[in-house]
């Protein structure tokens, strides 16, 4: 029994049966069809038999399918980013990351396929489609999350992957990131404490991101070491509007912070703009610290004190790691550095009030 529903599509307009038709007939995803015919992934024997029966019933041959394309190298790697387009466009972090990736991929004849997705289900469907249609040899996973389901998903799909962000080694895919992820935040807080700041706030990113939790913990621990608590912690989505709203809220506090640390450079730049519009001087009235060490921080005034996490180098090492996972004979350099503070003019002695 094939399990095909009476109204399941049998073929595409040109007369050939499609992998989607097989998936609909068997009541599974296209990725499960690919796994069944290729012998990859974790599907039950009953599901495999149902898929193969549906394929036979429809006259669908794996040799004419995306699974056949999957057996050939596409020399294309996918970078999937789960961020709104306006947030991505305003954050040069990903431009730096792509520069690092492309610097390794292009000389070897590999291309980079960029996709933006809105949520986990859309991201999951995209990976399944990439596998079913044979469009990528591997994927770079960004923004590691707590209990991240994506490594297991890609292992099940048989798609090589690397995970950015220094996640747990037990994720099942190589993880690429600087060691001691909280070191930069601790150094930033210690720098501000030495300058006399005692009311220090943190404008952070979404709580579900792994690096958000690691850096926030480091921020709190550094203050606790000086017997202090945060002046405030504000969660944002990394957008310019959220950074402006967060800064305006902090400046309106009865005892406003004398220093603010931001989770990325773009938000720090927005924060400086908000402070200047409020009639404050930076760093005279408010010290500002960013995170990433992007080029914009070196050319603005005052130049931005920030944490350098070597985004381009991380991208380069991620590219080489993924190429090795895809079977390329390529050396992967170690990434032993930790995030370090770069002190510039946006931080200064705490104002006496």
Explain this structure to me?
This protein is α/β, with parallel strands linked by helices and 353 residues long. The chain is 42% helix and 14% strand. It has 14 helices and eleven strands. A six-stranded mixed sheet has the order 7-6-8-9-10-11, sandwiched between helices. A five-stranded parallel sheet has the order 2-1-3-4-5, sandwiched between helices. α1 (19-26) crosses α3 (45-58). The longest helix has 16 residues, at 210-225. The protein is elongated, with a radius of gyration of 24 Å. 46% of the residues are buried. The model is unreliable at 1-14 and 63-71 (pLDDT under 50).
Write the layout of secondary structure elements.
Layout: H1 19-26, H2 30-38, H3 45-58, H4 66-70, E1 76-81, H5 85-90, H6 93-105, E2 111-116, H7 120-132, E3 138-141, H8 150-157, E4 161-164, E5 175-176, H9 183-194, E6 200-204, H10 210-225, E7 232-235, H11 240-251, E8 259-262, H12 265-277, E9 287-292, H13 295-299, E10 305-308, H14 311-325, E11 340-342
Parallel strand pairs: 1-2, 1-3, 3-4, 4-5, 6-7, 6-8, 8-9, 9-10
Antiparallel strand pairs: 10-11
Helix pairs in contact: 1-2, 1-3, 2-3, 2-7, 6-14, 7-8, 9-10, 11-12
């Amino acid at each position: 029994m094939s399990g095909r529903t009476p109204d399941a599509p049998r073929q595409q307009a040109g007369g050939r049966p499609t992998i989607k038709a097989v998936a609909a007939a068997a009541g599974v995803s296209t990725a499960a069809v690919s796994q069944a015919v290729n012998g990859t992934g974790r599907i039950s024997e009953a599901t495999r038999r149902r898929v193969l029966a549906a394929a036979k019933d429809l006259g669908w041959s794996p040799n004419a399918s995306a699974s056949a394309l999957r057996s050939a190298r596409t020399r294309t790697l996918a970078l999937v980013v789960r961020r709104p387009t306006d947030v991505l466009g305003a954050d040069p972090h990903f431009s730096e990351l792509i520069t690092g990736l492309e610097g390794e991929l292009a000389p070897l004849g590999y291309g980079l396929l960029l996709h933006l997705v809105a949520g986990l289900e859309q991201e999951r469907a995209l990976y399944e489609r990439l596998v079913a249609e044979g469009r990528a040899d591997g994927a770079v996973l960004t923004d590691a999350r707590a209990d991240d389901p994506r490594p297991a998903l890609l292992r099940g799909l048989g798609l090589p992957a690397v995970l950015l962000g220094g996640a747990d080694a037990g994720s099942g895919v190589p993880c690429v990131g600087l060691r001691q992820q909280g070191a930069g935040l601790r150094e930033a807080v210690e720098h501000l404490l030495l300058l006399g700041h005692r009311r220090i706030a943190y404008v952070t990113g979404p709580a579900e991101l792994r690096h958000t939790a690691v850096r926030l913990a480091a921020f709190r621990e550094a203050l606790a070491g000086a017997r202090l608590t945060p002046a405030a912690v504000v969660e944002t989505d990394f957008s310019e509007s959220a950074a402006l709203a967060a800064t305006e809220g902090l400046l309106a506090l009865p005892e406003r912070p004398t220093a603010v640390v931001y989770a990325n450079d773009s938000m720090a730049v927005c924060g400086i703009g908000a402070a200047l519009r409020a009639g404050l001087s930076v760093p005279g009235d408010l010290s500002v610290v960013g995170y990433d060490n992007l080029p914009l921080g070196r050319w603005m005034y005052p130049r931005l004190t920030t944490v350098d996490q070597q985004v381009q180098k991380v991208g380069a090492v991620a590219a080489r790691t993924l190429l090795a996972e895809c079977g390329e004979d390529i050396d992967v350099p170690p990434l032993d550095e930790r995030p370090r503070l770069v002190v510039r003019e946006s931080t200064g002695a705490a104002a006496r009030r």
